[in-house]
Fold this protein.
Amino acid sequence: MRRLVLAASIFSAPLAAQAQDCPDGYSVPAEYSAWADPQSAPANGKGQLEPGAAYDLVLVPSDEVAYRLPPERRAQEGSFGQVAALHLERAGTYRIALDKAAWIDVVSGGTRTASTAHGHGPACSGIRKIVDFELAAGDHAIQLSGSPDAQMRIMVTRIGS
């Protein structure tokens, strides 16, 4: 029992320290300035996400989602997912940020797009996961799957010039 408590305190300490290290008046980097002011997002790809805006998505049980392609990583029973439409005017590297755990697939023209980088959000931002994709101009579907939560914040930003 002691080992379990010690292990839990070791793994929770960095999270607690991270929250305490956030200085008063801290603000997220400019490219994530919309993160703190999310919009409600349309469900199941019926509307478009706009790059540079943050959205709060309502997820549904994964087995009820009309995915364009089956998720690359099979969702566990009882998990949640969603599909969000994205239209891009310019090709480039786009970063998808989430506040919670989920698998991200981007489907473009019936093909899954491979990610190019993975990481965590800036300290104190509330962004848990960031995944980069090289995307062409045009229409894309962002598929979220395997989330243990029924709500998710998402933001798409273009990086580089």
